[in-house]
Write the structure tokens for this entry.
Amino acid sequence: MSCLEVQSITRVFDDLKAVDEVSFSVEAGQICGFIGPNGAGKTTSMRICATLDLPDDGDVLVDGMSVLSHPREVRRRLGFMPDYYASEPNMPVADYLDFHARAQGLRGPSRTRAIREVVEFTGLGDLVAKDCSALSKGMRQRAGLAVTLLHDPALLILDEPAAGLDPRARVELRALLSVLAEQGKGVLISSHILTELSEICDVVAVIEQGRIRASGKVSDIQRRLQPDPLYFLRALAPPDVVEQRLLEQPGVHAPRQQDQGVVFALRGQEQDLARLVHALVAQDLPVVELRQLHADLEEVFLSLTDGKVQ
Amino acid sequence: MKRAWTWIDDRLNPILVKEVRQALRSRFFLGTYGLALVMATGIGMFVLMGADSDELGTIFFGTVYACLAAATMGLVPFQAFLAAGGGWDAEKTNILLLTDLRPAQIVRGRLLSSVTQSLLILLALLPFLGLAFLLPGVDLGVAGVVLVTTLIFSAYLSCLTIAASWLTSNKLLRVLLMTFLGGSLLWFTGVAVALGIEMLDHPDNMADDEFWWAWAAIVLHGGAVAAFAFAAACARIAHPEENRSRPLRLLTLVVTAALLVAIYVLMDQTSSPDDEMVVALAAYGSLTLTVPFAFFLTEPERLGRRVRIDLPRRRLLALLTAPLQPGGGNGFVLLLVTCAAFFGVLILAPPPNVDQWRDEYLPGLLTCASYLIIAVGVTTPFFARWTERTPVRILAVLSAPMFCAAAMLAPAFWGFVTSDRDLERFRHVGNPVYTMEQVFRGSGDGYEPLLFLGVITVLMLNVPRVIRGLRLLRSAGASTST
């Protein structure tokens, strides 16, 4: 069963369709990157998944529970970390966690244990006595993550968790999320930093103008966008000559010059690639570099979206 | 002992625990606490040095009480307003709603936190109050009543300010609201201090039954207003797609039932009840109920998705829940059901020992209900299709008092123009107080047909939206069952 199942949700604000029949799912133990330009409908979709908003049409199931009919059960199964931090003045981190643990209905020893575990997991040990409002951005994110983990949710929804973090804090956050996924939690994470997501996400959902443009594994999306593998070839010859020679070969298409070489797509199998190399060498083209180009999240994102906002 | 404490600790409202912890560390509370102590000490000493020995206790207690009232009825409710309103800025309310807490728990937590702060301030001033009892002139009973009443009203005021803090997130409106509340709390504190000192000066009043009736009426009425504020605050932070109206509607039914009980009690006192008291109670009751009904009758005519899911699956049962479902049409159904239930009970079980019941009191109460129906039902149906938009809804709510004011003032103005002394002095059907007095005295025959006509007109005006509301319920109930 999916940890999160978004079933064709639509949300309209006045005349604006912020979310338009959006569907995707996240399995247990999977990290799903939710990417899209500003105003694409990411936060609205996430708020709906977190029961803070309701779709005008469609439904969202969290661990099999509907956000429409069982919002309280859904809240017990998910941890939502919004893109803002609710600073609490005159309150040490320990009290902050204690308050949220109480608010989640944790009692007695189970509350103490939950707080101890999340403090240990997020590395907040030295900061429990520090006032919440005095925490650095990175530490606030850790405190926020600790709060979302207190009731041991099956699904984590993180809205821009890496925004404003320094490189070290990002690396640490990434490591924490990987551990959580290994523990079997589903994670839905939105971020603008695509390189960040590409390293930790198993799957992505790309949204633009309220509609899902593509979802699934990055390599699968790339394959759908570009069915034939892409190669980069550099030879000791001017790139336009190389491009010309390549176009003469069977199966080669969509060549473009890049970094002193040529990127091209080749229809066929590995034998066809071997035949191509043989033919080029036979034509006295001094090939010095040939490599296959792999799917890149940034490329996928750019080819799927055109930067329009609603 | 430890187990018992853990048991209690686990069941404490999380918001209460958090807010008390925060308040005890905050400068605002420590400042208020310290200031109350310093003022009580300083002024008390000053009074002790200069006052006449016979009144020493009264003056000393009055001075300390003024400090206590200023802190518990002024600063604590104001702090509740600031603390609850702070949630808008950082969207803390959203984060709270993601926890296991229900809106009522959140509001209750904030309220309990204010009550705890008031109790702490009272505890700080207790030694001074104790000293006052040792001085001549202080009646222990009166002082107890004054202190208990102060704490009760401190809680009521906190309820109101918490509800007010969730009215709007607009910063300009919040500043205006803050100014208005600050002024109101200051005024209320002044009135409370004056009343408290008056009670201390005349302890004999407490021996009179009427004093206790008045005290009970004020405390109960304040409680009803605070309960409405509490329910409104809960409704404000509940999800818009949920039935936010139901608790308020149930509370309205409870308040109506309380009004009915009060009328019975008043009539049961003697075979010839005090006319003016019955008139005042009926008039004030219907006037108070105008406020919630004005809100119910201007609710947008739509059922949220969660409301639809919660509807009974059988169409008939879904229709029967109409008075408790959101929407102006359903609000009108609630108004009719409330009136029908009120008079149903009175007719089936009339108050005993009251001879003139059917001739005077029943027509009088019917007149009150007619005014209530006309006040909220004439203008609101014209806005029904557009109340989804907030400005239109505000206009729709305001249209009810504006209509009432126009109904009172227009004939008076006409009387001024035509030199009709009766109209000029508000002796006309547009003035509910005058009409009710006439009807209760058995001389309002000329007004009853007019009021009846008014009620029939209101019924006709509201039929379309009632039908629309019932259709919505029927179709939603049917879709739930499929």
